[in-house]
Design brief:
The protein has 13 helices and 12 strands. By secondary structure, it is of the alpha/beta class. The protein has 2 domains: 205 residues, Nucleotidyltransferase, domain 5 (2-Layer Sandwich); 172 residues, Nucleotidyltransferase, domain 5. The strands form 2 sheets. Strands 1, 2, 3, 4, 5, 6 and 12 form a 7-stranded mixed β-sheet that branches. It has a 5-stranded mixed β-sheet with strand order 9-8-7-10-11, with helices on both faces. The mean pLDDT is 95.
Length: 398
């Protein structure tokens, strides 16, 4: 038997596995590295987050990625070269993090690498009848495995698409295993570049779980802050709080057909970007609006569309608590707007569930890797967009 296959076989039978989860989202902030100990699998999964850090992307790295990010026309050579280049960087950062934590690479069983999303193309957007859903993440798993010497599971979204999904959101699989609680209905709201949530019913019945992207989280707020103020993001909503909302612009921003689609649905910065904002300003006659007012309106836009999607859940089921994660959980205006919209629902961060909101997405991919090795498909009923699949491709270090 191949020694790597034999190792995987042994890993599948262990009581617990040490897995590093990696996540780099559409906000291009950097690489999240979560060192996890996972016991069991499926509904018996228990996870302990042992260590976590984010390695920020330098301005040079961001520029390299932005050269091919969310664009229909790119330099194919550049894209091809970035695929291994970024993976090797990620691998080196993992080794540096392990050294910082005093952990030998040989003590890590698996790496779960999400990769860097470059383009997300669900069928509802590309409008090419001969093609189905598509998505592309770079940061090749073979290069991560070779750089670190650790078996790597990557490219999770492709199986989801192959099984009839849109490749996103994938959070529901880990959310269901880690955060379901008998007798409490929970909504796990992640506000990264794009906002998405998983609704977990009191019954813990997988067939009653709801999941969807809601629209923009931070992507348009960050892009506007970078373009007009030269800063990575609107820290503590300081700039937005100086502005006022333009109702006409807000109405136009919310007019896209995406918001009328039923859940589950998925989207990305391919739609919600500065060009989307430009068109909305033109149609609403707000082209000369104060930049602080634009940021205020964009923050309300994210909050409103998140709340609209939550209302759709409330039309079906009550919600006891909303647990937030991602960069948006650090935006006090965004959090306040959501809390005030749902005054009878407890709103907190996932830190209350013993998982840092900043680490949550990386942790969830560690769970997917654990299921790929030790678990199996989780069935959420015969529902469009939520296939029962085991996700991830396996790369051996030698």
């Amino acid at each position: 038997m191949n020694k790597n296959v034999e190792k995987l076989y042994r890993l599948s039978g262990k009581a617990s596995r040490t897995i590093i989860g990696l996540m780099s989202g559409t906000s291009l902030d950097g690489l999240d590295i979560a060192h996890c100990t996972i016991t069991g699998f499926g509904r018996d999964t228990n996870l302990r987050l042992d260590h976590f850090k984010t390695v920020p992307y330098s301005s040079e790295i961001k520029e390299e990625i932005r050269g091919v990010f969310a664009k229909k026309m790119v330099d194919l050579e550049q894209l091809t070269l970035l695929n291994p280049w970024l993976a090797i960087l990620h691998g080196k950062w993992i080794l540096e993090a392990l050294e910082e934590w005093g952990i030998s690479p040989s003590a890590v069983d698996l790496i779960a690498s999400h990769g860097q999303t470059i383009f997300h193309a669900p069928k509802i957007y590309h409008d090419r009848t001969q093609y189905d859903n598509g998505t592309l993440q770079i940061g090749d798993g073979d290069h991560v495995a070779r750089t670190t010497g650790i078996i790597t599971i990557s490219d999770f979204r492709q199986k989801h698409i192959a099984a009839g999904g849109e490749g996103a959101p994938l959070a529901l699989y880990g959310d269901y295993l880690l955060f379901s609680k008998q007798g409490e209905s929970r909504l796990l709201l992640n506000m990264g570049g794009i906002a998405n949530f998983t609704f977990l019913p009191t019954s813990q019945d997988a067939e009653q779980v709801l999941v969807t992207d809601t629209g923009p989280g931070n992507t348009m707020i960050d892009a506007f802050a970078q373009h007009h103020f030269g800063i990575p993001f609107d820290k503590d909503a300081a700039l937005a709080l100086q502005g006022k909302v333009h109702d006409a612009l807000l109405t136009e921003l919310k007019s896209d057909p995406f918001f009328k689609l039923s859940i589950p649905k998925t989207t990305g910065p391919e739609l919600f970007n500065l060009e989307y904002l430009r068109r909305a300003r033109e149609k609403s006659g707000t082209g000369s609006a104060n930049p602080h007012d634009i940021l205020a309106t964009l923050t309300h836009f994210s909050a409103n569309t998140i709340s609209m999607a939550i209302e759709e859940v409330l039309n079906r089921e009550p919600i006891d608590a909303i647990f937030t994660s991602g960069g948006g959980a650090h935006n006090p205006l965004l959090m306040d707007l959501i809390s005030r919209t749902f005054p009878t629902i407890r709103v907190a961060t996932t830190d209350e569930l013993n998982i840092s909101g900043d680490a949550k997405e990386a942790v969830l991919f560690a769970v997917l890797a654990n299921e790929a090795v030790a678990g199996g498909p989780i069935r959420f009923g015969e529902r469009k967009g939520i296939p029962a699949v085991t996700m991830g491709k396996i790369s051996f270090p030698d």
